[in-house]
Amino acid sequence: MRAARGGAAAAALRPEHMAAHARLVKAADVDAFAASTVMRAYLRGSLPLQALLLLRGLLPRAPRLLANSFSLSLALQAAAAAASSAPALLGLGASLHARALRSGFAAADLFVRTALVEMYAKTAAGEIALARAAFDEAPRRDVFLCNVMLAAYVARGEVAEARKVFDGMSGRDLVSWNTMIHGYAVRGDVGMAREIFDGTRDRDAFSWSSMISAYAKGRCSKEALELWREMRVAGVAPDCISMVSVLSACSAMGALAIGAEVHRFVESNRVEVDMKLGTALVDMYAKCGDIENSLKVFHAMPVKDVLTWSSMIIGLANHGLGHDALSLFSEMISQGLQPNEITFIGVLIACTHVGLVNDGKKYFSSMSDVHGVVPRMEHYGCMVDLLGRAGHVEEAMELIRSMTFKPDPIIWRTLLGACRIHKNVEIAEEAMAKLKVLDPLADGHYVLLSNIYAQANSWEGVAEMRKTIRRENIQRVPGRSSIEWENTVHEFVSGDRSHPRIEEIYKMLEEMMDRLRQAGYRPMTSLVLQDIDEQSKKRALAEHSEKLAIAFGLLVTPARSTLRITKNLRACEDCHSAIKLISLAYDRKLIVRDRNRFHHFSEGQCSCKDYW
Questions:
Q1: Tens-digit pLDDT profile for residues 373-431
Q2: 71, 152, 516, 595: which has the fewest Cβ within 10 Å?
Q3: How would you classify the pairing of strands 590-593 and 598-602?
Q4: Quick one: 413 and 501 in the same domain?
């Protein structure tokens, strides 16, 4: 691999440089300028070792070759680049440093001083003290020297030290500001990254992409999309990094229109769709509910890696297309690709959503037996879900007991959900006992167990759950649902009154609920654990976040157009039942993404066939 890289770099050298090298080797008198020119060409061609070999061959005939600062700085740069991949060359850098000290260039020449700092920053095997010492010894510092020190600290994650250098700089250029934005972004400190970003004048694509990436990685998807809009208004052409980050934010928010806008930019500007960008597009379309375009992008990609295949498999599985997902997995294997842990999560989800218990067991066993992939917590969680949904609750419990590591709260919560479906009070109470220790303040556990008690007509159990919620002051995680309209994501929480068009939304909500009642809708008030009267429970259910988002969608979109809703939690049974009737009453297709999967509602039916 290294030889291939070197050959490509050598081919990139200009013929005149290769000819100059040949003349230097044969010449009795070495021309210092010609030698420096060839060394610089090797460095630009990513061949630092060849630059050093040339220098070593010439020095016996031209001992004063390093008597000028330009040649010496090139030698230091070559030593730094070569030693990063060949630690045995570390001593060469030290000898060049000694030569620089003897010649006086280390003190007097900023080119040499900057090269020294950069050399130690790249070759000191994680120890930055030598680079800092070389930096501190500089009698004067320009912006280039300071930027090298900034980059050295940021590369090692020492952003606080980088900030001290940054604050002490007498002058800064765009590289200085971008280095600090990047440093804070990589560390996950979006607040400080934004502070530096806001102070940056004449931002370039790197400035914007670093900040957008920081927001996307920090799950500040709304802020990432807002910054994307600002970037487009500012007329800055996005790079691939910023587009991948924006697509990730679109995936999280269900912002299909903005994601499609990025895709149109890629196509209209003939941007090369590499595997990273292509996979981001596949993932975005799938997570925003457009599985058809996800497949279209996937099949158009000439080269795909395991992450691309896994993203497509997971996308199909989450849309309830389990058989298609498993067919794609078989195709992937037939092409000689090795599946990884993420691939098998998609495979097991596919089996879960269509109830393929035996197939799921077979794939789970093949992970370690055939493919050498050790099952992790997530894979056991998928198997518990698969078995539990299909009614094998006791078998799911046995699988948990056989685990070689301690089950996490998600495993027990999944089992509790299966107990609700199949009315298994005994195992539900066992799962709840574990959850009270592992995750005592999560409201969902208590709601699930209360529903299980209600199904079993154990009203004492229901009353105890309500008392526990009050006594422990357990706060409900608010349901949040979003819908995209006119390139803006509109978000709602249960009982929301904050939207600028809230009066119109609630008027539409009343009309919608009236139509549902006429169609046979009966609110499932047993799902409401608050100690309130029956009418208040009905009102609480009507104001669930997904119903508000749908009411807004009915208000602002053309008749019969598709509504796409994204919710942060699992959709409740009441909303699931109501949305089926909404699709019938309004002749609409609704695509709802909850925490577990996609639901495609149409003509009074759901794609999950109530198996969810």
A1: 999 999 999 999 999 999 999 999 999 999 999 999 999 999 999 999 899 999 999 99
A2: 595
A3: antiparallel
A4: no
Please give the span between the terminal C-alpha atoms of the chain, in angstroms, as a whole number: 48
Domain end residue (candidates: 140, 155, 177): 140
Write the CB contacts of 350 (distance below 8 Å, at least 6 apart in sequence). 313, 316, 317, 321, 322, 323, 325, 326, 329, 356
Please give the torsion angle defined by the CA atoms of residues 410, 415, 416 and 420, in that order, rounded to the nearest 10 degrees.
140
Describe the chain by its helix, strand, coil percentages, rounded to 5. Answer: 70, 5, 30
State the Cα–Cα distance between residues 251 and 263, nearest whole angstrom: 13
For 110-146, b where at least 16 C-beta lie within 10 A, e where not — what string? Answer: bbbbbbbbbbbbbbbeeebebbbebbeebeebeebbb
Q: Which residues pair with 483 in a beta bridge?
A: 490, 565
Residues 6+ apart with CB under 8 A from 222: 249, 253, 489, 491
DSSP secondary structure of 109-139: -HHHHHHHHHHHHHHSTT--HHHHHHHHT-S
Residues 446 and 503 in one domain: no
Sheet holding 480-485, edge to edge: 488-493, 480-485, 563-567, 590-593, 598-602, 605-606
The total number of residues shown for the chain amounts to: 612
The dihedral built from the CA positions of residue 115, 118, 122 and 128, taken in this order, carries a sign that is positive
Q: Which residues pair with 567 in a beta bridge?
A: 481
521-524: Cβ within 8 A, 24+ apart = 521/577, 521/578, 521/581, 523/574, 524/572, 524/573, 524/574, 524/577
CA 7 and chain centroid, separation = 35
Low-confidence ranges of the chain (pLDDT < 50): 1-11, 126
Residue 168's pLDDT is: 94
Q: Does some domain include residue 588?
A: yes
Q: pLDDT per residue over 558-572, tens digit each?
A: 999 999 999 998 888
Tokens 């691309």 correspond to what residue? 308
Helices 341-354 and 357-369: angle between axes, nearest 10 degrees:
170
CA dihedral 225→228→232→233, nearest 10 degrees, is 70
> Token digits for 205?
């694509």
CATH number at residue 242: 1.25.40
Alpha helices in 156-305, H assignment, sequence order: 159-167, 174-187, 190-198, 205-217, 221-233, 240-253, 256-268, 275-287, 291-300
d(CA 116, CA 73): 8
User: HEC states along 572-600?
Assistant: CHHHHHHHHHHHHHCCCCEEEECCCCEEE
Q: How far apart are CA 112 and CA 61, in angstroms?
A: 23
Q: Using DSSP, state whether 606 is helix, strand or coil.
A: strand
Same domain, 598 and 520: yes
* Residue 109 and residue 68 in one domain: yes
DSSP state of 45: T
Residue 444, domain extent = 381-472
